[in-house]
Amino acid sequence: MGKDGKVSKGLEFSLACESIEVVLVGLDNAERKFTLREFTGKERDAFMNQMSQSVVIDSEGKVTGFKTFEGLQSGLLARCMYDDADRLVAEEVIQRFPAKVQTELYKVAQRLNGLSGESEELAKNE
């Protein structure tokens, strides 16, 4: 019961991971279908562990910058982007996408996986 004497509703979540369909049009005008999928907690933690190798941390434990930007966007996408055969898309394939396409997919993947807050905070410290 809340301070105002009313019964609070509580929290309700879906345990189904979200996904977003993506269509990329090739140079031959052929459409290729992909899916960006939300991580499980275990997948998110593995990604965060991988990314921790690429950041600079100050004496207070705060992220202050990057050691390298290599694989920053493609690394996330390679862990959550699936092709139409339900296989993860290889990072080498994603790295050949145009930079703007990679960046837009990265932003969507960040939001989908609840990572955009950490990235925005890091950008402020740059």
Q: How many helical stretches? A: 5
| Structure class | alpha+beta
Note the run of SSEs as H and E: EEHEEHEHHH
Distance between the termini: 44 Å
Strand content: 15-25%
Number of separate structural domains:
1
User: Could you describe the largest sheet, including whether it forms a barrel?
Assistant: 3 strands, antiparallel
Helical proportion, percent range: 25-40%
Mean pLDDT: 87
Low-confidence stretches: 119-126
**Globular, elongated, flat, extended or rod-shaped: what is the shape?**
flat
Report the count of strand segments: 5
Using only C-alpha atoms, the radius of gyration works out to 18 Å
Which sequence of strands runs across the widest sheet? 1-2-5
